[in-house]
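Researcher: Here's the sequence for the chain we discussed earlier.
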Amino acid sequence: MRFFFTEKPMTRGEKMTVKGSDARHIRKVLRLQPGDDIGLFDGLGAVYTARIDNFVRDGIVVEVLSSASPVTDSPVQIIIAQAFLKDKKMDGLARQLTELGTAQWIPFFAERSVPAPDRRRLAGRLERWQKISREALKQCKRGRLMVIEPVGTLQDVLLQARNCDVKILFWEDRPQSLRLQERFQQGASPEKIFAILGPEGGFSMAEVETAVAEGFLIAGLGPRILRAETATITAAALLQFLFGDLGKSP
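Model: Thanks. This is the structure I predict for it:
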């Protein structure tokens, strides 16, 4: 069954109209007909089975048959703060972090972030990332949308991390991740993990010291130097494996 996104929670027997590209995909590509079933996500933790009722001029009317809570959302809330990267690397991260079950993504400008789009372009980028994340949600069948925050500064990021159980800054000058492994071996079960990843040029020493002063652990991802976007995906997967549901049976 193919899944599509709905903007609001639904109840059994309620009808809604699927519009835009989703409606065109259902009708022109999938060639579904009245009586066929589709799935819906509301991005808030519920999935629905709906049946196509009829075609109308501006879309496809469907009726909700049932709802359920999927088991595909991670038991741990992982928040990734990402220093702004060049080109379209951030677009890829919006998709991949959604697939990995990241709860929240916070882009920010670090000292060595090269691109600095103006406010209008940043608003457009945020809208694009949210669209990419919604598409990834349908593909990986998770229940909740990844929250994507507006682009801020490192100080904004550190303020948002203050109520987290585990706070980590990944830095290429600290190749060992032993402290993370120790936490896992001790059976720690944090509920909220905050991780910061740097730009292509890495963090400055001043930024690292500022994070340490705010209670962040400094950890690495091994002896090899990874590309910035590779490091982010690796860190998200590592945290999901150690503390979440990656590699575990459904």
